[in-house]
Here is the input.
Amino acid sequence: MSKPITVWDLPRDELLAPGHRMCQGCGAAIAFRHILKAAGKDTIVVMPTCCGEITSTVYPDNAWRVPWIHVAFENAAAVASGIRAGIEVLKRKGVIPKDRQINVVAIGGDGGTFDIGLQALSGTLERGDDVLYICYDNEAYMNTGIQRSGSTPMGAWTTTTPVGKIWRGEWRPKKRKDLVAIAIAHNVPYAATANPAFPLDLYAKVKKALSIRGPKLIHVLSPCVPGWRIEPDKSVAVGKLAVLTGMWINYEYENGVYRVTTPVPKRKPVREYLRLQGRFRHLSEEEIKKIQQLVDAEVERINKLIGKEVIGPVEG
Amino acid sequence: MGKVVPLGGNYAVAYAVKACDVDVMTAYPISPQTTIVERLSEFVANGELDAEFLHVESEHTALSVAIGAAAVGARAYSATCSQGLALMNELLYIMSAMRLPMVLTIVNRALSAPINIWNDHSDFMSVQDAGWVMMMSASNQEAYDEVIIGYRIAEDPRVLLPVITSMDGYIQSHVVEPVEVESDEDVLSFAPKRRTWYVLDPDKPVAMGSVGDPNYYYEFKRQQWEAMKEARQVFDEVVVDFAKKFGRRYSAIETYMLDDAEVAIVGMGSFMGTIKAYVDRARKEGIKVGALRVKLYRPFPADDVAKALSNVKLVGVMDRALVPGSPTGGHLHSDVIAAIKQRGLDVRTIGFIAGLGGRLLTMDNVKQMVSALIKYKDARELPKEPIFIGVRE
Here is the structure.
């Protein structure tokens, strides 16, 4: 294995300009910054309609120091495929120099990926288009004001899964759909999860993904200050706790082999992750226990995939 | 001189797309469009055309791919109809406002429900507001030529708008006519690839598709209006050049026996051929009837239409799509009235709805229309509703 990277290895270039309108403490902003550091300036970014889109490119302002395009909500993967196709054919025809390396990276939210954009994403992955698709997952439709998405975790309050006499937040009584598994089911060469609280891990994964030809997917947890009801200075702490409790597992899949990139020998109870966030404030002990059971099951599944215990038991 | 080949409209269009050296092609199967992309696939499969052919999972993705390809400066093409066009609808508006050029062929077909694969103009007319330059052909030769003319207009730096070309489903798409197929060299010299628009390039980064807040959105829209006005001018220039190069002369409208006509039928598409044939017959009987075919639908050639109809007593406008609840029931009829009234002309109109969902149109149907025009030409009161031709009441 190569030497692990440190912050000193990260490029100093800031391709995400300051002055964008993302919230203080926005997990997505941290993610974008490190994605761009890894991808570099020879990158075309495609964004569907999402928080990051509307806050970074309000005409005539633009926070992206790379070519950037937004078209609609459900088609970032498709637009990225068109860009890649255009680049490839224009290289063949001598319009773009043949040796020019250009990364095509689509970055979309969970609504634009899990829900409305899943069909287009499936097309891109299925065709094998040379595109890196990154989902920054803040676990609800935050852009429109915190509505439930196909990625909202069990029990979470949102404005469309409110806590009332009958409803108790997100009602789905099981693990949400597994985006990485969906990508892998399309026979992609590389898929991973990442988390801006672990920026070096995120950086390394984007680098690795872009070194591989074909469709790649990275699913990034994106703590959301207003949507998760957390303090602006807690988004990194919450992101870390997500990993330390096993709510989120940083792993990657490369050509049939799974690897956990942030092993957790002893897990903290999920309560520690949940209690920092207002969206889980209403949960009863019984409900927290159910979430703990879901996490335990997922940890067991991942450990089985790896073939050894990389995520340990909850510390007593 | 090109080579005359017997071709169905769809194959004719595929030859034109090939000759234009399209870079990225993408489409989803839908009748009656499918044989366009079948033939294009064969061109790519045989190495006759160097293009990226993307097999997409929907028309929505087809147009998204085309937008992405155009955004990096590639010449993009797609074809669709009916429900496929309806699924593209959102992106039609976006692409024209992003000022990205391409050519999209619509093989006119009815919209569901009931589901119906046959010809009318419901799909074409449903996208009249989307900001695309729109043409409708009446022969397979014209369908072929529209693609070539389309790229010249779309990529003209004064225009930079996507272009819809169209033909009638089955009536043209699957019926063989002699088509003069020009050499690839001649077509490319007429419609050279100039990459006249802003593209996504890491050496010169730009952002496309930004948020346009109330301070800016309106100005973007205003520019689209200007671009469409330019397109009207550019169309006239391009068809003159086309006639010089290939000897076939088109114009925004085609008039037939209008000079001394008392009554006239205005319409679009392939059925205008039958109408012209009926005009010949009626003229022999002394009926002063003429016809006007609108080829360029957006930008609407209002001056030309109004001028051509200025001496006609009563105009019957035939729509092959129905707008339930609208004042006229038909898109074209409303446009023709607007063109006439804005110019202060005293030309009266009635509306016909005809041939929906592939209902067969015949000489008898034209006779019905002409009879209605004669009946009402001196009448004080005109029907306020469209006259439905060939329907079982």
Chain B touches chain A at residues 23-24, 26, 50-52, 54-58, 60-61, 64-74, 76, 90-91, 94, 98, 195, 200-202, 205-213, 216 (CB under 8 Å). Chain B is about 40% helix and 20% strand. Chain B has two domains: 3-246, 253-389.
